[in-house]
């Protein structure tokens, strides 16, 4: 089941929320900073330990920490692509963010996950294109609840329009 809503991802009561992280996993702006602030220092400590063992997280990959003080039990961190022009593998990398996050959620036997609009902020991925990639990547999943938590009305409208287009293709 796929849900679309406007809201704040840190307030979601789901098994896992997805963090649109940077490759250092040390927090930053936007969704990443909000999750680290709301979740408390435990998330950063776990991220630091992961980076010490594995190095920076590459774009399109994902890793998991606890949810710290969040309502969600887990945070799945993924690094989206910087958008150049759409001809440098950006769509494939972005799709991988979603499929890798779902793979981790399935391995943990979770039932619900909340995604932000990965790469659409500082990484400048156009919202309409990002919505098409994101929804296309999860549409055929048999995962329980997949919730997209969009920050503003324009993002929600873009995702709704894309969802309607995908539904009409079936």
Q: Quick recap of the structure?
A:
This protein is of the alpha/beta class. The chain contains 5 helices and 6 strands. Helix content is 42%, strand content 19%.
Describe this structure in words.
- With about 170 residues, this protein is α/β, with parallel strands linked by helices.
- It has a single domain (about 1-170), classed as Leucine Aminopeptidase, subunit E, domain 1.
- The protein has helices at about 30-40, 40-55, 90-105, 125-140, 155-170; strands at about 1-5, 15-20, 60-65, 75-80, 110-115, 145-150.
- A 6-stranded mixed sheet has the order 1-6-5-2-4-3, sandwiched between helices.
- The mean pLDDT is about 95.
Instruction: Write down the CATH topology.
Output: Leucine Aminopeptidase, subunit E, domain 1
Distance between the termini: 16 Å
**Approximately what portion of the residues adopt beta-strand conformation?**
15-25%
State the helix count. Answer: 5
Number of strands: 6
Low-confidence stretches: none
Reading the helices and strands in chain order gives EEHHEEHEHEH
Summarize the SSE layout with pairings.
Elements lengths: L1 E5 L9 E6 L8 H10 L1 H14 L7 E5 L7 E6 L10 H18 L4 E4 L11 H12 L6 E6 L2 H17 L1
Parallel strand pairs: 1-6, 2-4, 2-5, 5-6
Antiparallel strand pairs: 3-4
Helix pairs in contact: 3-4, 4-5
Features:
six-stranded mixed sheet; 5 helices; alpha/beta; 6 strands; Leucine Aminopeptidase, subunit E, domain 1; 170 residues
């Amino acid at each position: 089941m796929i849900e679309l809503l406007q809201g704040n991802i840190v307030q979601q009561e789901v098994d896992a929320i997805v963090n649109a992280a940077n490759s250092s996993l040390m927090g930053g702006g936007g969704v990443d900073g909000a999750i680290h602030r709301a979740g408390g220092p435990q998330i950063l400590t776990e991220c630091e330990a992961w980076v010490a063992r594995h190095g920076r997280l590459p774009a399109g990959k994902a890793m998991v920490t606890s949810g710290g003080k969040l309502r969600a039990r887990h945070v799945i961190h993924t690094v989206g692509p910087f958008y150049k022009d759409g001809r440098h593998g950006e769509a494939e990398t972005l799709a991988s963010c979603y499929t890798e996050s779902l793979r981790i959620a399935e391995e943990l036997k979770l039932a619900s996950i909340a995604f932000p609009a990965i790469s659409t902020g500082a990484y400048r991925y156009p919202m309409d294109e990002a919505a098409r990639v994101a929804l296309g990547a999860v549409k055929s999943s048999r995962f329980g609840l997949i919730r997209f938590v969009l920050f503003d009305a324009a993002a929600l409208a873009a995702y709704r329009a894309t969802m309607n287009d995908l539904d009409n293709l079936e």
